[in-house]
Amino acid sequence: MPQITTLLFDCDNTLVLSEELAFEACADLINKICEDRKLDVRFTGSTLIKEFVGQNFRGMLTSLQERYGIEIIPTDLESYVRQEEDAVIAKLQASLRPCEGVDEQLEKLSAGGKYLLSVVSSSALRRVRASIEKVGQDKYFQGDVVFSAASSLPKPTSKPDPAVYNFALERLGKKAEEAVAIEDSKSGTLSGVRAGIKVIGYVGPYEPEKKDEMIKVLKDAGAAIIMNHWSEFPDILAKIEAGEV
């Protein structure tokens, strides 16, 4: 059993409760894009979450083009991506909170010094950094250990593409089998699993009536074990390290 040396944290709704705020901020922009292209479809923050959770904004626009047969030229797409980033960061800086119980675990992990801690997100790097700084988690992720599928890669992508995990492992000088990832979405879980990493599926931020469904979704996507609250993390990690999961 390879020793676990590295913990890879998704950011949105895994470290910080950002998904709802972010989707509210980008719903207005997506609706404007639809309106400009005479598309008879509108989104709210909650319907966007349902349709596109786990994707970054670039990924959403790609899906939107495929689904509705519209074209967004590259210069417009880059402009929209920047506008969305600005709108979301403003919203996060006003209202962002950490996920319940995560700070206590990060504090213990950091003090223990046993694991390399890294953030691996689909979201733009500027947004990820703004998020962890807002809630004071940046002190746990020192150095070049924060990675973004939207910003860090030579070619921007989004989870479920495993590229961002492969890139993070390469940069950190780690192998997939010595890493554990924590993910709350289907696309994030698929991304980690496709990179050969053992994934903990985290369902803490989901509404009670949605949890059972998400447990199934994350398990079906390949999550090795499900975590309901961050207080369960030490026991779950111990099970993984003992080869029980």
UniProtKB/TrEMBL annotation:
Originating species: Hapsidospora chrysogenum (strain ATCC 11550 / CBS 779.69 / DSM 880 / IAM 14645 / JCM 23072 / IMI 49137) (Acremonium chrysogenum)
Alphabetized InterPro entries for the sequence: CbbY-like (IPR044999), HAD-like_sf (IPR036412), HAD-SF_hydro_IA (IPR006439), HAD_2 (IPR041492), HAD_sf (IPR023214), PGP-like_dom2 (IPR023198)
Pfam families cross-referenced by the UniProt entry: HAD_2
Protein name: 6-phosphogluconate phosphatase-like protein
Highest taxon of source: Eukaryota
GO molecular function (one): phosphatase activity
